[in-house]
Amino acid sequence: MSESQSCSHECGSCKESCSDRKPTSFIESPHPMSQIKKVIGVVSGKGGVGKSLVTSMLGTLMNRKGYQTAILDADITGPSIPKVFGITEKAAGNEMGIFPAVTKKGLKLMSVNLLLENDSDPVVWRGPVISGTVKQFWTDVIWEDVDYMFIDMPPGTGDVPLTVFQTIPLDGIIIVASPQELVSMIVAKAVNMAKMMHIPIIGLVENMSYVACPDCDKKIYVFGESHIEEIAKEYELEVLAKLPLDPKVAQLCDSGKIEEVEGNWLDQAVNKIEAL
Ligand SMILES: Nc1ncnc2c1ncn2[C@@H]1O[C@H](COP(=O)(O)OP(=O)(O)OP(=O)(O)O)[C@@H](O)[C@H]1O
User: Fold this and answer.
1) What is the pLDDT of residue 158?
2) H/E element holding 187?
3) How far, CA to CA in Å, does 4 sit from each of 24, 101, 235?
4) In contact, 171 and 40? CB cutoff 8 Å
5) Ligand 1 atom with minimal separation from the 244 CA
6) 3-class SS at 176?
7) Does residue 100 register a pLDDT over 80?
8) Rounded to 5, what percent of the chain is helix, strand, coil?
9) Helix (H, G, I), strand (E, B) or coil at 174
10) Does the beta carbon of 56 lie inside 6 Å of ligand 1?
């Protein structure tokens, strides 16, 4: 019920129970010189499942299709995006803002590793400082003319993913999981967090799903049969891809050449993103 006839509509001064109270939005505006059309978060319930790989491959594929593409590396304590693209130079900036690095094929990137003196310097920062840095990657970086921005989210459901969900207007998220995670409650936590925050889930990607035999192409399910279809059904989500564990892909990541990746595993995900 509305508090009184004399409601000022300034919700900060009214009681929590007031029915006219509007939910507080923490969404931040990007830099005034930025133009960003769609923003997609790439999320995982825990670390090391291939979230950065999926982010980099999706960025590469959208860029190959002719879209202006960017990656914001929000994984502040475990940044891996510059390395897989072979970027070693530091970010430049002036009084107007910070400029993202640009890869060989023209993808724009921002990561904490572009700001640290040495790539191996640890980020020993408190949570609010880490969250503040992610926010600044959105507000202070000049993201000119971007059709699709992918955000490599920090793993889990903690403080920093929460900040990203609250401050950056995401058009949707893709959840990446390994076969082992799909039999645990970890994926469910990521799905439920997105639902709580009203962020649309574009779909699920299973990484390290199988190994293809180099001689006969037979799929070997090293971690047992996949459970992704059951999870997708339970949460009414779409399965976008099943990525193999592929030594060629690992080698491209290690040598900073992810933009040379081949394979059509993520085609369905790309189509879904284009249709957003
Ligand atoms: N399908 C795959 N085939 C080969 N190597 C892979 C595959 N997926 C991931 N890797 C390798 O596994 C390592 C971890 O992957 P990645 O950095 O993408 O995980 P992550 O989920 O982003 O981890 P974190 O959240 O800890 O940053 C990387 O060295 C990557 O090259």
Assistant:
1) 80
2) helix 186-196
3) 20, 54, 42
4) yes
5) 1
6) strand
7) yes
8) 30, 20, 50
9) strand
10) no
Q: What pTM value is reported for the model? A: 0.90
Whether the CB of 208 sits within 6 Å of ligand 1: yes
Which numbered atom of ligand 1 lies nearest the CA of 78?
27
Q: What is the mean pLDDT of residues 54-59?
A: 98
Fold of the CATH domain 31-274? Rossmann fold (3.40.50)
Query: How many angstroms separate the alpha carbon of residue 253 from the centre of ligand 1?
Result: 9
CB-ligand 1 contact for 156 (6 Å cutoff): no
pLDDT interval class at 225 (50, 70, 90): confident
Cβ pair 205, 241 in contact under 8 A? yes
**ipTM score of complex:** 0.96
**How much is the pLDDT for 155?**
84
Domain range list for the chain: 31-274
pLDDT of residue 275: 96
* For residues 16-41, average pLDDT: 83
Q: What is the pLDDT of residue 159?
A: 83
- Look at residue 197 and tell me whether its pLDDT is greater than 60: yes
Q: In sequence order, what are the residues at sequence separation of 6 or more whose Cβ sits closer than 8 angstroms to the Cβ of residue 192?
A: none
CA-CA-CA-CA torsion sign (75, 80, 84, 85): positive
pLDDT score of 189 more than 70:
yes
**Residue 46 Cα: closest atom of ligand 1:** 25
Residue of 76, 80, 153 to test ligand 1 pocket, by largest number of atoms within 8 Å of CB: 80
Q: For ligand 1, say whether the CB of 263 is within 6 Å of any of its atoms.
A: no
Ligand 1 closest atom vs CA 246: 3
Is the Cβ atom of 53 under 6 angstroms away from ligand 1?
yes
Ligand 1 site, residue 75, Cβ cutoff 6 A = yes
